[in-house]
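Methods: example folding runs. The two proteins below were folded one after another, and each record is reproduced exactly as written to the output file, sequence line first and structure-token line second.
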Amino acid sequence: MTQATPTHHLQARLRRSRMAIVILAVIVVFLLIVVVAQATRGATPFAGVQSDDHDVASTQSEAQQPNQQTPYIRGIEGDPMAIGDVDAPVVMVEWTDYRCPFCAVFTNETLPRLVQEYVDKGLLRIEFNDVAFFGEDSLSAAVAARAAANQGKYLDFMEALYADAPEQGHPDMPREKLIGFAEAAGVSDMAKFQSDLDSPDLYEAVQSSQSQAQQWGIQGVPAFVVAGQYFSGAQPLETFRQLIDEQLGE
């Protein structure tokens, strides 16, 4: 004879089922909140103020010192890690990690349009900053980018590197791959480039850039500031257009 399942066993099963449904509902709501937050994340005021114990301007000449209200803007004529006229009416600052997939999306898809629509017309200047949030390979790639910058090939190197980026994940950056990017970028003196890959000064420059970014509150990449407005992530082209056009009075 088959015995009936005790009532308290049925009640326990019902409680477990209800609990599972509640937990699943909480997870779904959390994921929806994250998606909405990512989709609606816009520009916010950027209070990039240098701390008293890290005065990067102290090593620059008086003519090269940044505006005290916008210390994150270098504003240096001939800056190898910047594009556009130094006196352009709008300046955009980017922080990037060369192993960041969303940084690759910006460089591959959005940056060329900004160059065409604004930089080439003298309306926009873009200054790039490197960080190494994803480990030693990020640091090595940033050093390599600066080594290319020493020969006037920063943007070409960055474009070659990001053109090879996978759709997701953080790619390895062994030395031979970095050399390949430099060759693709048209770096002329490869012996100097390879020597610069071991430059303590370049390593220190990248680490200083990251330290400064963290002091300014940069915790993820890509990160941008346009006219004092901070935003991050793989934003659509229209987000950049809107902020830039507002500054241009259009």
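Second run, written to the same file directly after the first:
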Amino acid sequence: MLGYLVVLLAISPFLSLIALVLGSGLFLIQRYLIPLIKENSRELTQAQVSISKQIVETIQGLRLIHSFGRQRQATGTIHHLISHDLLPLQEKQARLSKVTGPVNQSLTITIVGLLLIIGFIVLSDEQALVFPALFTFIAALNRLSATLGGFARLFNSFAKNSGKLERLTEILTTEDKEWSRVGGKIFKGLKEKIEFENVTLQYFSDQAPALHNINFVMPQGSVTALVGSSGAGKSSIADLLTGLYDPTEGKITIDNVDLKAYSLETWRQQMGVVSQDTFIFNQPIIENIRYGKPEATEEEVIQAAKDAQAHDFIAALPNGYDTIVGERGYRLSGGQRQRVALARAILKQPEVLILDEATSALDSQSERLVQQALAMFQQDRTVLVVAHRLSSITGADQILVLEQGEIVERGTHQELLSLGERYAQYWQLQAQGEVAVN
């Protein structure tokens, strides 16, 4: 690079000065454009990060989203971010890229043309040498410009990707799984019963079935409780009822109509789910509670929180119901998260309620208060309870005891105690404080 500079100065210091002035003009134009590219890159990367976070949160909350029938809203949020935030910034980046290339090329051609004209005038005294001198000068300048241009392109590329260098975007993958069944009959309400008929569920072909030959009926307005050790199949029954999985064999009927015949969206709109693995979005608490019923008023949200024994701790937070709880609700305790989830289910006022060990993270005092609220809320609703503490299901209309994916006992609390078998043993152990059924 230094050699080319020496050649230029040797041929004509004046022309070299002119080239420097013209090159400085090109540099100033690039200096004006590069901050625009860098700022757009930062905004573009931030938009990509926001979309990535939203996709990650959506994937993590798939069970909740599908349980509440909010697939359209979830995908709509992502589409809104893409169309209103990401695409305009990508288009702006494309426009800036289209500008910088032609501007640089046209300015380079202009500079070369001016140098030829000025050089011919400056070197005209030496007619015999004017063309060789100009050719040598332009060739040396071209080589020098190519070297400097490499640095410029590198700097321009750095500016274009500076946002990505500041923060890596996340790569997302999802399992190839059908999460939503499109179409089907509109579910208008449960009139008679939900029935499991010879239901078998096998998650993987090379593993034993999670459920085998399950048969039971849930009459409308009744409470059915599931009891069993970890892995017995309790949560699998809840997953089947919400439509997260289809039975491998047998069928689930709603008022004598196969669940597969119904639109899952309308079925889930009438269902409330509170699970042991409570999912909380990185949004204000009021929006987390309102998730199942977006049109709910603030007064309705507060009443649902009171019913779930969550109002007092929410009101004590720095921003009350507007407090953002962090990703997966990490700013709340386990018991607080579950009470928010209970409030979310209560606000929705579903016909079918699934409580998958819903009070497992509550202390005894909170559990007692929540159980009182649930007792009132469950009236006239069809409820499936996955039991953690047997004391919470003594009033259930029927209790099913599961072992290794099969129903081994069924009856009311008193009937099962009278049998003196597995349920009675669980009850005795819990009464002695030795074990919890989970």
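Comment on the second run: The first helix runs from residue 2 to 11.
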